[in-house]
Design a protein that fits this description.
The chain contains 13 helices and 2 strands, in the order ααααββααααααααα. With 347 residues, it is mainly alpha-helical. The chain has 2 domains: 2-108, no CATH class; 121-340, MetI-like (MetI-like fold, Orthogonal Bundle), CATH 1.10.3720.
């Protein structure tokens, strides 16, 4: 197991480097850099002024050099103008250049400064990620138990009326996008056209989470993901219920409830477990629509702002977090296989 984890960690590091390099390359294309320069200056900047801004901030260096500086494995960029003023990646405002660190990338905890929010990117990402963490927590709390119950009930008696009804509900929930169900919920439960039980915006939930201002976004996300998990659980449960050892247990006179709870359920949860673990990266990136719709300023909302305003440093930080969450959840799901089914061995 230890060797397996070490190998997977090595693959995870290589995968993270490749993915972040691709994002770094795309965000540092010259049209994006030109747009950034004009956003920070003015839209009528001449080509010479754009080149001067990009050179002063180290954007015109070779791509591998810029990527190494961003990671923190190469010395940070330093620029000295005609007046002798020294600026650079590692030199903060008001700092003596002699006191600046040589390396100042993400490995040293320096994520850069957001050009839109005018604040440290690390502080922005940690704050917004915490807000989305609460959203993910309540979504999983509602989605996972509900999906497992629906899937198990449907798979216990394949072909029954209950199975057909629950399967239809699962397909319908998965087929309805979040922006459709979210608008429907707002219209029905948070507007003057319907019953005003909840708030149509979750902005206030950033400071104080209540049932009134947080239930609709949680329900919108949970309903969409619940159908997929329920269908996977139902398919797995149906397969297990036809296994030979289940038939043997029935012939021995074991009650149906004991067969489901003690024999079938654990093996039936192996496939849904992977799907459940994959919900974490999906939630982290899939909340973009819901957070924008309900104006909840979490990680998804920040990602939209970074992409829409060409905030390169913030966009890169969001990509690092997303890659990290995807790789870690995949590792946890692989390890979870062994604990759910001892017959699975690590080769």
């Amino acid at each position: 197991m230890g060797l397996f984890i070490l190998r997977r960690l090595g693959v995870m590091i290589l995968t993270a480097l490749c993915l972040t390099f691709i994002v770094f390359f795309l965000t540092n294309l010259y049209p994006n850099l030109e747009k950034l320069a004009k956003t920070q200056g003015n839209q009528r900047m001449s080509d010479e002024a754009v080149t001067s801004y990009l050179g002063k901030n180290g954007y015109l260096q070779p791509l591998p050099v810029k990527y190494g500086q961003w990671l923190g494995v190469l010395p940070g960029h330093v620029f000295e103008d005609d007046e002798g003023k020294v600026t650079g990646r590692c030199i903060e405002k008001g700092m003596d250049p002699a006191d600046a660190a040589t390396f100042c990338g993400i490995l040293q905890g320096s994520w850069g400064e957001s050009t839109v929010f005018k604040a440290d990117v690390g502080d922005i990402v940690s704050t917004r990620l915490g807000l989305t963490g609460w959203l993910m927590f309540f979504v999983m709390l509602l989605m996972v138990p509900s999906a497992l119950i629906v899937g198990v009930l449907a798979g216990m008696r394949e072909g029954s009326k209950l199975d057909r009804s629950l399967s239809t509900f699962s397909i319908a929930s998965t087929a309805t996008p979040e922006y459709v169900s979210g608008v429907i919920f707002i219209t029905l439960f948070a507007s003057s056209a319907g019953v005003k039980w909840f708030k149509g915006t979750a902005t206030s939930a950033a400071d104080d989470i209540t049932f009134e201002n947080f239930f609709l976004p949680v329900l919108t996300i949970a309903l969409y993901g619940m159908g997929y998990i329920a269908r996977m659980t139902r398919a797995s449960m149906t397969e297990v219920m036809t296994a030979q050892y289940i038939r043997t247990a029935r012939l021995k006179g074991v009650s149906f409830n004991n067969i489901v709870l003690k024999h079938a359920l654990r093996n039936a949860l192996i496939a849904p477990f992977t799907v459940i673990m994959l919900q974490f990266p999906w939630l982290l990136n899939g909340v973009v629509i819901v957070e924008t719709l309900f104006n909840y300023k979490g990680f998804g909302w920040t990602l939209v702002q970074a992409a829409g305003n060409n905030d390169i440093e913030l966009l890169l930080a969001c990509s690092v977090v997303a890659v990290f969450v995807v790789l870690v959840t995949q590792l946890i799901s692989d390890i979870g296989y062994v604990f759910l089914n001892p017959r699975i061995r690590i080769a």
